[in-house]
């Protein structure tokens, strides 16, 4: 199974503000759709609620500590290992799409194989940040430059 983080990050590390993206929508949403289509996506409850619905063509696996929480059309998991086990039954490619706590947990656990990072050329105010990453453990693969942002793929360096 390959676990990929998909994230958009401002120059200052900000990934969100008030449950939304802290910048105008960019073209990276089309790439996000193409990348994740047909695959399970793992996200925190707040990220799911900010999206507002399950995204078509993908299985949404929502992490929550609330055993009573449910939403139509989603799978629920109590922790990241449970979410990844559920995702592994569905597909070999799994995408973690937020939020900051889920990213931090996945990186700290060492389960992430790849990161697809939209590097937004802004430093907005925010209340959610991407966790600190030891970038020496990652190597840059592909980079696509666009107006106002780059999409960069990082693969975990061989140990």
Automatic annotation (TrEMBL):
It is an enzyme of class 1 (oxidoreductase). The keyword Oxidoreductase applies. Its EC number is 1.5.1.3. InterPro entries: DHFR (IPR012259), DHFR-like_dom_sf (IPR024072), DHFR_CS (IPR017925), DHFR_dom (IPR001796). It catalyses: (6S)-5,6,7,8-tetrahydrofolate + NADP(+) = 7,8-dihydrofolate + NADPH + H(+). It comes from the Bacteria. Keywords: NADP, One-carbon metabolism, Oxidoreductase. Residues 2-159 form the DHFR domain. Key enzyme in folate metabolism. Catalyzes an essential reaction for de novo glycine and purine synthesis, and for DNA precursor synthesis. Belongs to the dihydrofolate reductase family. This is Dihydrofolate reductase.
């Amino acid at each position: 199974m390959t676990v990929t983080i998909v994230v958009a990050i401002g120059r200052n590390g900000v990934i969100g503000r008030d449950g939304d993206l802290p910048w105008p929508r960019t073209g990276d949403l089309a790439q996000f759709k193409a990348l994740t289509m047909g695959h399970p996506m793992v996200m925190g409850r707040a990220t799911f609620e900010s999206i507002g619905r399950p995204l078509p063509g993908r299985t949404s696996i929502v992490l929550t500590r609330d055993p009573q929480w449910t939403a139509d059309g989603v799978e629920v998991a109590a922790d990241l290992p449970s979410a990844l086990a559920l995702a592994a039954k569905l597909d070999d490619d799994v995408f973690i799409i937020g939020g900051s706590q889920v990213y931090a947990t996945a990186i700290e656990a060492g389960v992430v194989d790849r990161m697809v990072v939209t590097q937004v050329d802004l430093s907005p105010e925010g209340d959610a940040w991407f966790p600190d990453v030891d970038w020496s453990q990652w190597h840059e693969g592909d980079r696509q430059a666009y107006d106002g942002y780059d999409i960069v793929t990082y693969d975990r360096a061989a140990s």
